[in-house]
Amino acid sequence: MIESREFRLVSRPVGMPSAENYRLATVEVGAPGAGEVQVRNHWMSLDPAMRGRMYDRKSYVPPFELDKAMEGGAVGEVMASNHDGFAVGDAVYSRFGWREVFNAPADAIEKIEPSGLPSRAYLGIAGMPGLTAYVGLIRIAALKPDDVVFVSSAAGAVGSIACQIAKLKGHKVIGSAGGEAKLSFLKNDLGLDEAIDYKNVPSLAKALKSAAPEGIDVYFDNVGGEHLEAAISVANRSARFALCGMISTYNATGPVPGPHNIMLAMPKCLRLEGFIARFHLDLMAEYRAQLAAWHAAGRLKWKETVFDGLESAPDALMALFEGRNLGKMLVKL
After folding, report:
1. 271 lies in which domain range?
2. How far is CA 329 from CA 79, 195, 306, in A?
3. Is position 86 within any domain?
4. What is the model's pTM?
5. Burial class (CB within 10 angstroms; exposed 0-12, middle 13-18, buried 19+) of 237
6. Rounded to an integer, what distance in angstroms lies between the CA atom of residue 73 and that of residue 70?
């Protein structure tokens, strides 16, 4: 038997999650059963969508069950295997984060094949965040030549990849983020055409209009709220909005008003489409092939914000909502 720690949700938060909503439990993990694999996690991902699973409501994934181990993306190493497809030492990806060691059926984990990328990249640029950026731009927004692209939360895990994909495909890209460090990353590292510090402008709509006097044709939305209103106000006719996330509303304690200018969607003939990357897994092989080519050519950059130890996971999630991350938020176990 091996001792392992795991975080459990013990109450459903109202507003921002706090320490009282979690319990760090210690459990014993036995040998893997028939067809199972035992994994020790080395890295776990923190994602905005985890907040949605803390509500007790129907969604595209079930809510977290109270007093049971939480879930999320993780990469680790096989410690023991009772399945021919996995060997001790294999690097694997799973949805069994928020814990140190676990047993799972072999079909619930994915072997990470050598690619020249560190295994933790499969929680970021080579995983669901990267696929989300690719799907949003290529399939949902259907990028066209000469499109002007606006990305909110552009220094985050998904936004920073979306910015790079759009730049690599030859588009003018405008990103918004909060603070000088993030703006420096957008301008100096990612090479964006314009970067807006949304925390330090009197009017985001006016700042966006100044950055894109010709208007925008694609909006990749990670934030919602004021950002969505600004994008609608500056959008050109037939602009396409890929609605990926609305982090500005996730911890709201009451109804959130919709964009006050949504009526402009009609005369501007806008298309606003929400999407979830897991419903577009058919594009993963295509995306990873393109990613491998870009990486081999040295054309990609990414940042990570790392918290140490499983016990730091709740604070890391809070930091994500407070904008204390640059790039992908990870916990090193």
Report:
1. 128-173+207-278
2. 25, 21, 6
3. yes
4. 0.95
5. exposed
6. 11
